[in-house]
């Protein structure tokens, strides 16, 4: 069993370790180790195209996480409060279907809307809308799981004491589900910043994000600069995962 477990973890994480190690390789080729250097990181931070793409990715990820957290929280609360079978279907379908199908359907929708109304031309805004569409479901799942562990009698007691529905939500429900909301927001940010498939379909000409820029670079060759930007993106993702686990280590459990 130990051999099987170690082999599985090596298969999962050894390629990531190799990417990080070779980002410090003093050679333009990744065929062999030549020496240790930071020049690829220095070259990366002087690459205007890469910095622009990274700025676009951060801007879209922040906006998408905020919007999807707002709507996902409302969806999670609604799924818990109203036991309608159609609600889980509507909220969770975008995350259940393959990303390839989501990307194709979204680009067809945006093109049709642009042809009819003259708006929604493919670009950064359509990328943002696409990311919000598939991140809402992830936030809703976390919030709904958090609400399942909440004692509904607390809200009823607040209402009996004269609180309005909004006051009961703000003063009672919101503090209980806040860890789940934060965890969902961090998850949405992570999913948005490194998404490739849906972004590839909905970006259009001239709109570049970090995953798209990395893809354009590796079509030529996998250089240490690609390893460097991949390592930084990996580090950002790991930091967000650690923050999410610290903020709400049990937010995905329904027995809190």
TrEMBL record:
SUPFAM superfamilies in UniProt: MetI-like
Subcellular locations according to the entry: Cell membrane
GO cellular component, one term: plasma membrane
UniProt keyword annotation of Amino-acid biosynthesis present: no
Annotated membrane topology: Multi-pass membrane protein
GO BP, sorted A to Z: transmembrane transport
UniProt cross-references to InterPro entries, sorted A to Z: Bact_Polyamine_Transport, MetI-like, MetI-like_sf
Segments passing through the bilayer: 7-24, 58-77, 89-113, 119-143, 168-190, 196-214, 226-247
Taxonomy, superkingdom: Bacteria
Keywords per UniProt: Cell membrane, Membrane, Transmembrane, Transmembrane helix, Transport
Major localisation: membrane
Pfam families xref list: BPD_transp_1
Domain ABC transmembrane type-1: 54-244
Family stated for the protein in its record: Belongs to the binding-protein-dependent transport system permease family. CysTW subfamily.
Protein name from the UniProt record: ABC transporter permease subunit
Source organism (scientific name): Craterilacuibacter sinensis
Lineage: Bacteria, Pseudomonadati, Pseudomonadota, Betaproteobacteria, Neisseriales
């Amino acid at each position: 069993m130990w051999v099987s477990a170690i082999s599985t973890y090596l298969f999962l994480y050894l390629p990531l370790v190799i990417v990080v190690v070779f980002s410090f390789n003093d050679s333009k080729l990744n065929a062999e180790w030549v020496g240790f250097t930071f020049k690829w990181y220095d070259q990366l931070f002087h690459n205007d195209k890469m910095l622009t793409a990274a700025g676009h990715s951060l801007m879209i990820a922040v906006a998408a996480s905020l919007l999807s957290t707002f709507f996902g929280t409302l969806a999670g609360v609604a799924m818990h409060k109203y036991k309608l079978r159609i609600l889980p279907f509507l909220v969770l379908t975008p995350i259940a279907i393959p990303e390839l199908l989501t990307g194709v359907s979204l680009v067809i929708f945006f093109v049709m809307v642009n042809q009819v109304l003259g708006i929604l031309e493919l670009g950064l805004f359509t990328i943002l809308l696409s990311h919000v569409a598939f991140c809402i479901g992830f936030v809703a799942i976390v919030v709904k799981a958090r609400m399942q562990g909440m004692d509904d009698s607390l809200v009823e007691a607040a209402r009996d004491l004269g609180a309005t529905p909004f006051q009961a939500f703000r003063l009672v429900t919101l503090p209980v589900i806040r860890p789940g909301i934060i965890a969902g927001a961090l998850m949405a940010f992570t999913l948005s910043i490194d998404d490739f498939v849906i972004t590839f379909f909905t970006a259009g000409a001239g709109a570049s994000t970090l995953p798209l820029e990395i893809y354009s670079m590796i079509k030529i060759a996998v250089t240490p600069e690609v390893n460097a930007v991949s390592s930084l993106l990996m580090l950002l993702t790991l930091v967000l995962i650690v923050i999410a686990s610290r903020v709400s280590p049990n937010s995905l459990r329904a027995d809190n």
